[in-house]
Design a protein that fits this description.
This protein is α/β, with parallel strands linked by helices. The protein is built from 5 helices and 7 strands.
């Protein structure tokens, strides 16, 4: 029985990238559905919270070494941007995994728990359990529009900083009425 289960999981992992590319999930220009999740302290966070924020960065992570290495960059850029950007890290690790609670104190942004992977499944982002979705980084405008989707680990720090700066410049050029929450 275990051998059969292991074989099924191996086959699923082999084809997940192809399925993810075909399914596509949420695309740039689509509206990101609102959701609410609790952080490691039990506080509920909704995507639609914080009307003064121009952009929300959603980062779905399993806190692998590469993801943890990117956390300080995200915090640095968030600090520089002030209230214009908000980062929500979404842990896709299981309910009993201690890693999110261990990592949370080093994050300067909320670390939300989604052990059942509800948000990623709602978005059509299939991935093997315990791994990041193919598209694990979304930048969402205050109106809920997806402005960017990609994989954080696939971007160099310079490329990510350039994208961040470009979004800040675009937000500064928009009238404040264009940043109202839905």
């Amino acid at each position: 029985m275990r051998l059969l289960q292991a074989a099924r999981m191996a086959a699923w992992r082999l084809g997940w990238r192809l399925r993810a590319r075909r399914a596509g999930g949420l695309k740039v220009g689509d509206t990101f559905p609102d959701f609410s999740l609790r952080d490691v302290h039990g506080t509920v966070h909704r995507l639609s919270d914080r009307a003064e924020t121009w952009y929300t960065v959603l980062w779905f992570t399993n806190f692998c070494d590469d993801c943890r290495a990117r956390s300080p960059l995200l915090e640095e850029l968030r600090r520089e941007a002030g209230q214009r950007f908000r980062i929500l890290a979404v842990s896709i690790l299981g309910k009993d995994d201690p890693l999110p609670r261990q990592v949370a104190p080093s994050c300067g942004f909320p670390l939300l728990l989604d052990p059942d992977d509800i948000v990623a499944l709602k978005l059509g982002l299939p991935h093997p359990p315990g791994t990041c979705p193919l598209h694990n980084l979304f930048m969402v405008s205050s109106s809920g529009t997806v402005l960017y989707r990609g994989h954080l680990s696939a971007m160099g720090n310079g490329e990510f900083k350039s994208l961040w700066t470009r979004l800040l410049q675009q937000g500064a050029e928009q009238p404040s009425s264009g940043r109202a929450r839905r």
